[in-house]
Amino acid sequence: MTDARIYVGCPREGYCLASIPALPGAVASGKTREEAVENARQAFHAYLVLLEAQGVSTDHWKGISPEALAVVDAPAGGLLDEDTGPVEEHELRDFLHVFEAQHAALMALVRGIAAAELQRAPDGDTWSVRQTLEHMMTTQASLLSRLESWPDDPFNTLQAIHRIVFQRFTVMEPRDTERRTEIGGRTWTARRVMRRLLEHEWEHYVQVREILAKLGRAKP
Fold first, then answer.
1. H helices within the chain, ranges in order?
2. What is the pTM of this model?
3. pLDDT the model gives residue 184
C-alpha cells in the first residue's frame, strides 16, 4: 500500500492522536505529535500480534512498514480519504471478523478479574478497568448512532439499544437481582438500575416533547 499514511492531530495542548487507517484499529495517543506517531507505529505491530493470536490472517498488512510511512496532518473534522466510498461486502465481512477477534482478546484479558480489582484505579489520573469498559459500551452505542439518517430509517440504533436492555433483563438470573454493587462510592442494585432506566427514558421523552413544541411540531 504505497498510499498508506500516518495521520496525526493535536486537538488540545498535551494531547495528540495518530492513526494508521491502512490497518483499521491501529491508533495511539501521545503528549506530543512525535510521541503519538511513534506510539502509533508500535501500536501497528502490537495490533498485528493480537490479530494473529486470535486467528486472523494478517498477510494483507505484512507488506506495510509503519516506520516508512509518511506523516500527515489529520484533516479538520476528522474525515480521512480512507473513510469515504461504499463498503464492499468483503470489507464488511473482514471488519466483523476483526471486531469479533478484538472483542475476544478483550474478554480473555478481563475475565476472572475480581470485582474489587475491576473497580480499583491505579492512581488519581487513571480510570479503573470498569470505567474503561463502561466507556467502551457507551461509545459503541454513540458511534452506531452516527450511521443513522433519521427519520429516513426506522431509528435502527435506538431500537437496537432498546433490544439490548430488554434482552439483558430477560436473561437476568435471580442472583443478579440480589446483587449490590459499589461504583464510585454509590450503591447500585437491579431495582435501582430498573428505576433509573425508566426515569431517564421519561426525562428525555419529556425533553423531546418540549423540543418539538418549541419547533411547532408538537404531537398529541
1. 33-53, 89-110, 115-119, 129-145, 156-170, 174-178, 190-214
2. 0.86
3. 77
